[in-house]
Design goal:
With about 425 residues, this protein is mainly α. The chain has 19 helices and three strands.
Length: about 425
């Protein structure tokens, strides 16, 4: 119900801000914001809850959320009334330009407190932003993303060449699936089948080229859910049990799609399962090529995920930060401890660098550095080694996978704990 006009209009009459704000537009705005963040921001449960509660405080209300990976229960209190609703959304981080635009939008709303209908309309404009790169450029980004990662799997020119071919095959259906949501849900399976068929049936790498799984892995790295696996573990450790469990199951489903896709290729080509042993070839790349490959990887990530170019410098810096800290830590205190320190340093750097206005959000800064830790690839290698009958080798990879995932998750949690939250300062209360 509309309020009666006041003789001297104040914040409540003009903008809907302040302790007496009408809960209907505030609730509508926060519901759209929650849905948008669940879909596009990828910040996880803590990020969604922090921003929704903070903007409710900015408009003189109070909000509480109960979150799962693909939904939320939102309760908004303002003006003496409480409204509760449910929100559902399928998480998708394929368009990180929307994550950048969302952070900038939240900062504008926090600082200017526009009328709530205007804020809601602005949020919808962010949601419908056109892609920052054309579809062909996204396909090229997937190829560069995979080629840049290839030397981390096997530092050989053969690995780089085969990855360029296989990644080009993967990029085509990936780009075409942008307008076919049903196809996108099974895209990891289709990509794994295609890569497996071409690798085993056409390329047929010899013993001197490394195991076939190592040849396939860089081209499939775009689909390896390492970020989901570590995020799920971090949420479980941090107390978001439901969200972490759902995210963990979803990540495992994606990983199993890749695994089953490889096995289908093995069956169709008649390849003996014992050929899945992933012995590596000796290196023939110089150290400078290995260092430069991560710059190629970063350019590919920017194109593949639609990151605005103005964030390229920050993204590149954190990729090399994670690499440097992990390499130094591994040399000094071992792989597990070095990975833990790298994850903690990455979390601290991404959190602090994302806080000033106009900076990219934490997800964008963090994602490139996280990919360098190559978590999910260990899981795929473990499964394929077990399927090939190499039980001891497969279980060793599986234990490495569990250890590294947990190490990274705890490192991220420790890094986040070292940087205290700033809800009160970041989102000041509306003036009385």
């Amino acid at each position: 119900m509309r309020r009666a006009p006041r003789e001297e209009p104040g914040p409540d009459a003009d903008t809907g801000v302040g302790p007496g704000a009408d809960p209907d537009p505030l609730h509508d705005f926060l519901r759209e914001l929650t849905r948008f963040m669940l879909t596009f921001s990828g910040e996880g449960a803590e990020g969604v809850d922090r921003v929704v509660r903070g903007l409710a405080r900015t408009y003189g209300g109070r909000a509480e959320t109960v979150l799962v990976a693909d939904g939320a229960v939102l309760s908004v209190t303002s003006g003496g009334r409480t409204l509760t609703s449910t929100v559902t959304a399928f998480p998708d981080v394929a368009r990180l330009d929307r994550a950048v635009a969302l952070k900038e939008f939240v900062e504008r709303v926090r600082d200017t407190r526009p009328p709530l209908p205007e804020a809601t309309a602005g949020l919808r404009r962010v949601e419908t932003l056109p892609a920052t790169v054309p579809r062909w450029a996204r396909g090229a980004g997937i190829v560069l993303f995979s080629v840049g990662f290839a030397p981390a799997v096997q530092p050989t020119w053969y690995e780089i060449g085969t990855t360029a071919l296989l990644a080009a095959l993967v990029a085509t259906p990936t780009v075409l699936s942008d307008r076919r949501p049903r196809l996108a849900r099974v895209l990891p399976l289709l990509a794994a089948v295609l890569v497996s068929l071409v690798t085993l049936g056409v390329l047929q790498p010899g013993h001197g080229h490394g195991g076939p799984v190592l040849i396939m892995l860089p081209a499939l790295f775009f689909f390896v859910p390492g970020d989901l696996l570590s995020a799920a573990t971090a949420e479980l450790v941090g107390g978001f049990l439901t969200t972490g469990a759902v995210r963990l199951v979803y990540a495992l489903v994606l990983l199993l799609q890749l695994y089953v896709g490889v096995l289908i290729g093995v069956a169709v080509t008649g390849t003996p399962s014992g050929a899945l042993f992933d012995g590596a070839q000796d290196t023939d790349l110089s150290r400078w090529v290995l260092v430069a490959s991560w710059a190629v990887f970063t350019v590919g990530l920017i194109l593949a995920f639609g990151v605005p170019w103005r964030a390229a410098g920050w993204l590149t810096a954190l990729v090399y930060l994670a690499l440097g800290v992990q390499a130094a830590g591994t040399a000094l205190i071992g792989e597990v401890a070095g990975t833990f320190v790298a994850a903690a340093a990455l979390a601290v750097a991404a959190d602090l660098l994302s806080r000033p206005a106009g900076r990219p959000p934490r997800l964008v800064l963090f994602l490139g550095g996280f990919f360098t830790l190559t978590v999910g690839s260990l899981g795929l290698r473990a499964l394929t080694s077990l399927a090939g009958g190499h039980v001891l080798h497969g279980f060793r990879d599986l234990m490495d996978f569990v250890t590294i995932v947990t190490t990274i998750a705890v490192g991220l949690l420790v890094g986040a704990a070292l940087v205290p939250g700033r809800v009160e300062k970041e989102f000041p209360a509306a003036p009385a």
